Amino acid sequence: MTTQIATSPAVTTTTDYDVVVVGAGFAGLYLLHQLRALGLSAHAYDAADNVGGTWYWNRYPGARCDITSVDYAYSFDADLEADWQWSEKYATQPEILAYLSHVADRFDLRSDITFSTRVDSAKWDEDAGIWNITVAGGDTVTARFYVMATGCLSLPKSPDVPGIENFAGPIYTTGTWPHEGVDFTGKRVAVIGTGSSGIQSIPLIAEQAKSVTVFQRTPNFSFPAHNGPFPTERAAAMIDDRDAYHQAAKKSGAGVPLKVTELNALDATEEERNARFEDVWAAGDLIGIMTVYADTLNNPDANKLFADFVRNKIRSIVADPVTAEILCPTTYPIASKRVCLDTNYYQTFNLDHVHLIDLHNTPITTVTASGIDTADASSEFDAIVLATGFDAMTGALVAVDIEGRDGLTLKQKWADGVQTYLGLATGGFPNLFTVTGPGSPSVQSNMAVSIEQHVEWICDTITHMDANELLTIEPTPGAEEGWSNHVNDFANITLLPIAKSWFNGSNVAGKNHQYLPYVGGVGGYRTICDEIVAADYLGFVFNDDQCNDGVIRRMQPDVNIMLEFLATLGLPPFETLEVDAARELSAALSDQSPAGPEVGEVLDGTLPGAVGDLGYRLYRPDTAGPHPIVAYFHGGGWVFGSATSDDSFCRDLCDRAGVIIVSVDYRHGPEDRFPAAADDGFAATQWLAQNAESLGGIAGQLAVAGWSAGGNVAAVVCQLAKDAGGPTLAGQCLLTPVVDGGFDWPSYEETAEGYVLTRSLMEWFLNHYVDDADRTSPKMAPLRATDLSGLPPAMVVTCEFDPLRDQGNAYAKALADAGVPTAHVQAHGQIHISVPAVGQIVSSIWVREEMGQALRGFFA
Ligand SMILES: Cc1cc2nc3c(=O)[nH]c(=O)nc-3n(C[C@H](O)[C@H](O)[C@H](O)COP(=O)(O)OP(=O)(O)OC[C@H]3O[C@@H](n4cnc5c(N)ncnc54)[C@H](O)[C@@H]3O)c2cc1C
Questions:
Q1: Which atom of ligand 1 is least distant from the CA of 447?
Q2: Pocket of ligand 1, candidates 118, 147, 153: which has the most ligand atoms within 8 Å of its Cβ, to mutate?
Q3: Closest CA to 691 of 602, 606, 601, 600
Q4: Confidence check: pLDDT of 11 > 70
Q5: Which are the contacts of 99, defined by CB distance < 8 A and separation ≥ 6?
Q6: Which of 150, 670, 107, 597 has the alpha carbon at shortest distance from 396?
Q7: Share of the chain above pLDDT 70, in %
Q8: Which residue puts its alpha carbon closest to atom 19 of ligand 1?
C-alpha cells in the first residue's frame, strides 16, 4: 500500500488517502476515476479478486441486465461510449463484466484498488477528524472521506431454508456463482426462489438438467425480454445527439430517455387498454412496463387491469392450469415487487422434467442429506440452487462495523429505521458518503445514471469543501427527518410499498419494514440535490457549526403536482375578478373535479332557511337505513359554491362515514352579508333535526361539518345551538375552518401566497361577507367566544400550507382547553384545497378517512 500525504489545503491531519472507497463495481470505478481527476488520492477495496461488483459475483446461467445495455452504461466519456458496442439489447453478465474490465483498463484504475480484501470496520476519529478503516487481516488506513460504494444488491441473504446445512451435495447461490460455471447435465436440481435471478436461470438450468424442481414462495410478474438487437430508433437517437439523449435520461423518471404517457388505464376503453398492454408485452422493456399507464402504480383498479392481463398471459402460456394458477401472483399489486424480464420462463413449466412446488401450500419441512422434504413429499436432488435474493439496500452498509460520533454505529443508528439525507449521507457520521444509499432512487432507476449522479455530487462536494477549507460535512437531524418524510410521502402515494419485498426489507427476518428507495424519479431527485447545493448545502452542517438548516421538500408530492398543474392554467387570481366572474371560474373548476364514489342515493330538495327556502343535496349511504344525518356546509369564502359544489367530497364523506350528508345552499355575500350564512346554517340544522326521520335519518342523531367558510358556518351553528338550547348536536367536523376574522396569524404571513388560498383572497372573501365591526363577533369568529365549554365533540383538520392553519390550530386547542372532546389532525404537506380533492390527491385520503371515522364516532 502506498502511503501518501493528502494534498488539500484544508487538511490539518496527515492521512493515508484523501478518500477510501469500498467497492469496485460501477460506482467504485467511476469514483476512483473522478477523484483522481480532481488530484485527490483515493484507494478502493473490494472483497472480490477483480472489478465488476454485481457483474463479478452474479455469474449464474442467464444473468443479464434488464435495463437496455446502451442505457445501462457510463455516459461520462463520449470516446468510451463510441468505442464499446453492445452485442444485444440486454447484455449477458460476461459482456457487462468485460465492459467494466475494459473501463478499469482504459482508465488504469486497478493500480488504486486492493482486491480480495474485505473492509471490516471504519471508525471516525473525532479529535483528528479522520476515518480509520480496518480491512480483513487487521491493516488500518486513514482517510479524510470514506465512501461506501458497496452496492444495493451485493450481500446475498442468508438462506432461511430449514435444514439447508444437512445437504450433502453442492449448493450454489446465484449471487456467488462459481467462476468455472456449473454443469447440470444429468442432474436432479432443486431451485429455491423465483425472483429475478431464479426467473433468469431456471430456463437455462432446465436445458441441461435431468429434472428441475422449482420451490416458489411468492410468484413474480415476469414479461418476455424479447432480447435481440437494440431497437434501431433508440440507437439512432443516441447517435444523432448523444448529449440530448443523456440529458433526457438524467431528467427522466427512471434514468432511461423514454416518453412516459399521461394516459390513464381507467380512462381508456377496454380495446385501447388491451392494445396498449399487448404492445408492452411485445416490447419487453422494463420502463415501458412500469409506466404503461399513468395510473397503474397508484390506482388499485388500474393496477388490477394490468395484473389481470399478465395473469391471463401466464394462463395462456402454461399448459397445466394448476401450475399456471400457482405462477399467477395474486397477493400484491403488479410492480410493487420487482417486475422481471425473462426468456422462456413460463414456457419452461410446460417441460415434463420441470416441476413447481408452491411453498405456501407445501412448505419445506427440512432439507435432508439427499434432498428436500415438504409437508407432503420427499424428493431427492443432486444439487440445490439458492436464488433467494439479497439483504438489499442496507445489508452491505451495516455489514461493515461503521462507528461515527460518540461511539454510535450505523447499525445502531438504523436499528429502528433507516434515516439518511438524500441516500448520500447520514447524521452522526461525518465525511461518510453512500453511493445509491437508501433514500435515493437507486434500485428504482437505471443505476448507471444514478451512480454517475451520486459520484459527481460527492466529488463536487469534496471540491467545494477543499476550496472553502471545510473539514467536515454531515446532515442535520431536521434535514434528515424531513427527507425521510419526503421519501415516505412519495412511496405512500403509490402502491409500491404494499408488497412484501426487498424494497421494504420484508424479505429479511427481523429487518425494519420501510420502503427504502426514493420513487420521486431521477430527474426530480437530481433537481433536489442541485437545489440543496445552490442553497448553500441546505440541511448540511460543515465544521460542526456552519449550516443553512432546512427541509428541502415538505409539500406532499401529489399536492405539488396539483399546484404545478394549476400554474400551467394561468388562471387569474379570483380576487382580481368581479364576483360573478369569480363564481363562474370557481364553478367551472368544480365541474372538472372527478366524480367521487357512488353512494346509495342522491336527491335534491329545499328546506326553510332564515329568510326563505334554501336548496340542498342529500347523499344517502348504500347501506340499510335509517342513518345519522350530517348537515354539511360547503367551502367558497361565503361568496362562491353551492349545495353541489363539494359533490365528490360529500360523496366521499357519506361513503366513509356511513351517514346521510345534507349539503346546504346557504346564502352568500356580497348580496347577503353577515350573519346570513350563519343564520341559514342554523335554520337548516334546526329543520334537519325536526325532519330527520322523514329524510331516512335517526331522530337525535345529527352532526355538522364544513370546509373553510363552511367550517365557519358549522362551528358557529354549534355555538348558536348551544346558546338556543338545541338542537342537540352529536359532533362538529371542521375542515380548515375560518374561526377568526383577523389576520394576525403567522400562517397568514408564511403561506400568504402560492398555495391557492392566499391572504389577499381571504381579505376579498371577508370584505364581501362581513363588515370590519363584526369581525370579532363570535357569530363570525367562533374562536372569540368567551365560553366554548359544552360544545359538541369536535374533529378539527388543519393543513400545513394554509393561511388558515394557525387559527384552526388555536380553535382545536381552545376547544380542548374548554373540555370539549377534540381530535385534531394536522395534515402534513397539505394545502387548503387538497383534503377535499377526492380522486385527485392520494396523500390526503388518510385525512378523509380520519374525518369519516370521526363522524362515525360521533354517533357511536
Ligand atoms: C443479477 C442482477 C442484475 C442487475 N441488473 C440491473 C440492471 O439491469 N439495471 C440496473 O440498473 N441495475 C441492475 N442491477 C443492480 C446492480 O447492482 C447495479 O446496477 C450496479 O451494478 C451496482 O453497482 P455498485 O458499484 O453500486 O455496486 P456493486 O456492483 O454491487 O459492487 C459493490 C462491490 O462492493 C464490494 N463490497 C461490498 N462490501 C464490501 C466490503 N465490506 N469490503 C470490500 N468490498 C465490499 C462487493 O464485493 C462488490 O464488488 C442488477 C443487480 C443484480 C444482482
A1: 11
A2: 153
A3: 606
A4: no
A5: 73, 84, 91
A6: 150
A7: 98
A8: 447
Name the grid cell of 67: 435495463
Calculate mean pLDDT across residues 630-645. Answer: 98
Three-state secondary-structure class, residue 128: coil
CA dist 711 and 719 (Å) reads 13
CA–CA gap between residue 356 and residue 650 (Å, rounded): 50
pLDDT in tens, 21-69: 999 999 999 999 999 999 999 999 999 999 999 999 999 999 999 999 9
pLDDT tens digits for range 750-767: 999 999 999 999 999 999
User: Are 633 and 713 within 8 A, CB to CB?
Assistant: yes
- Are 289 and 256 in contact, with CB atoms under 8 Å apart? no
Contact call for residues 185 and 179 (beta carbons, < 8 A) = no
Q: Which pLDDT score is estimated for 233?
A: 78
- Tell me, in angstroms, the distance from the centre of ligand 1 to residue 138's CA: 25
Answer whether the bond into residue 675 is a cis peptide, omega within 30°: yes
**CA–CA dist 197, 104 (Å, integer):** 26
Question: pLDDT digits over 391-417, tens only?
Answer: 999 999 999 999 999 999 999 999 999
Cell of 384: 440445490
* Residue 7, pLDDT above cutoff 80: no
Burial class (CB in 10 A: 0-12, 13-18, 19+), 80: middle
30 lines ligand 1 (CB under 6 A): no
Whether ligand 1 lies within 6 angstroms of the CB of 26 is answered as yes
Please indicate whether residue 47, judged by its CB atom, sits closer than 6 Å to ligand 1.
yes
| 444 CB within 6 A, ligand 1 | no
Instruction: Tell me what the pLDDT averaged over the chain comes to.
Output: 96
Integer angstrom CA distances of residue 278 from 272, 288, 309, 310, 317: 10, 12, 9, 10, 14
Look up the pTM and report it. Answer: 0.94
**455 burial level (CB within 10 Å; 0-12, 13-18, 19+):** buried
Task: Give the rounded percent of residues in the chain with a pLDDT score beyond 90.
Answer: 95
Euclidean distance between CA atoms 472 and 433, whole angstroms:
12
Query: How far does the centroid of ligand 1 lie from the alpha carbon of residue 754, in Å?
Result: 43
Q: What is the residue with the minimal CA distance to atom 22 of ligand 1?
A: 151
Contact status, residue 812 vs residue 794, Cβ threshold 8 Å: yes
| Residue 159 confidence class, pLDDT cut points 50, 70, 90 | confident
Helices 647-657 and 845-858: crossing angle, nearest 10°?
A: 60
Q: Distance between CA atoms of 582 and 600, rounded to whole angstroms?
A: 33
Which of ligand 1's atoms lies nearest the C-alpha of 390? 53
What does the chain come to in residues? 860
